[in-house]
């Protein structure tokens, strides 16, 4: 493929969510990592719910997080 051609037939849509601010520390605790992960997943779910009917009109499933 050329430099400006996409492998996706319909292109790729990128959405940017709200910033997530991790606490500054020399070494993150497991609790901090899980806190930031929860915020990240929450923001992904918010973006999905806000935009799914615009960009995923032909979806066959809903947003799912596997742990």
Describe this structure in words.
There is one protein chain. With 67 residues, the chain is mainly α. It has a domain at 25-57. Helices cover 39% and strands 0% of the residues. It has one helix and no strands. It has one helix at 30-55. The protein is elongated, with a radius of gyration of 16 Å. It starts with 29 loop residues before the first helix and ends in a 12-residue tail after the last helix.
Write the layout of secondary structure elements.
Layout: H1 30-55
What's this entry about, in short?
By secondary structure, the protein is mainly α. The chain is 39% helix and 0% strand.
Order of helices and strands: H
Distance between the termini: 35 Å
What is the beta-strand fraction? under 5%
- Specify the helix fraction band: 25-40%
Instruction: Give the averaged pLDDT, no decimals.
Output: 86
Largest sheet, in brief, is: none
| Shape, per Cα inertia axes | elongated
Strand elements, count: 0
Parts with pLDDT < 50 across at least 5 consecutive residues:
none
Say what oligomer this is.
Answer: single chain
Structural class: mainly alpha
Q: What is the CA-based Rg, rounded?
A: 16 Å
**Total DSSP helices:** 1
């Amino acid at each position: 493929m050329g430099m400006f051609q996409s492998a996706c037939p319909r292109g790729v849509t990128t959405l940017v969510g709200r910033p997530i601010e991790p606490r500054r520390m020399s070494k993150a605790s497991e609790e901090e990592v899980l806190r930031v992960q929860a915020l990240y997943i929450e923001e992904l779910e918010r973006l999905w719910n806000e935009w799914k009917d615009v960009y995923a009109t032909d979806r066959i499933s809903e947003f799912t997080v596997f742990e």
